[in-house]
Amino acid sequence: MRIGELSERTGTPRRLLRYYEEQGLIVADRLPNGYRVYDASNVDRVMQIRGLLDAGLPTRIIKQILPCLNKPRMIHFPDATPEMLETLENERDRMTDRIRCLTRNRDAVAEYLDVVREKLAAGSPA
Amino acid sequence: MRIGELSERTGTPRRLLRYYEEQGLIVADRLPNGYRVYDASNVDRVMQIRGLLDAGLPTRIIKQILPCLNKPRMIHFPDATPEMLETLENERDRMTDRIRCLTRNRDAVAEYLDVVREKLAAGSPA
DNA sequence: TCGAACCCTCACATTGATGTGAGGGTCAAG
DNA sequence: CTTGACCCTCACATCAATGTGAGGGTTCGA
Hints:
Chain A is mostly helical.
């Protein structure tokens, strides 16, 4: 598929798909006329990227993380330098922190909403 | 305490504490000379703010969420407009999405690191 | 052959969270 | 009184993610 279709399928502006490529997050083949071509796997990858960006990770870190996500046998670690492993460990821990923070706050918001809804339910039938 | 101490206790530059105030995330009393004064509760609140910012939430949303976090009896909902409740529900769901995304990716990174560490452990004693 | 709908590469603008520093008060200790 | 360590308010700078559009090719069907 070309960039327009990938854009539609992922809900991501073309501009950003080119930006992600520039940042080394995705790769695209080129047609003889210069058009980018993508295969289906890029759809999931772009979704991953968007999710991680939305969760506060910068592209620089996402770039490190993405190679870990190739489920079908990970053959991608012989090139892992010790400093890169340290980065990954740090990021793993930071992600855990984020999860904790988000969970705590999400639960608080949810509880708040539950209480409010109770109040409203108790008030309206009166 | 004054801004310097709050800055130290939270590891947050003074500049940002003023910024958070400007965005309506925290409030500060003032001494007669204009200095900001904070009480201990602000330490936790600033930590919350930093955590949420780091998790990708904009100050505008954090501002909506913070009132939900006052555990000691929430007396703060009579002013809840329906549109604000909708915002909160949306945010709650987005936070859930973020948590899912982060968890999935964190687990993948963790698994990757485990595998790499196994490989290294198997290689070094040889 | 013409127009619509694609695609390309710049390149400048914006927004939100920050950094940095100038210019200037306050206040306690020497 | 002066110095150092605080504090204040601007205001401009930066960085990453994103918006916008100019200027220009390609392709395909009417």
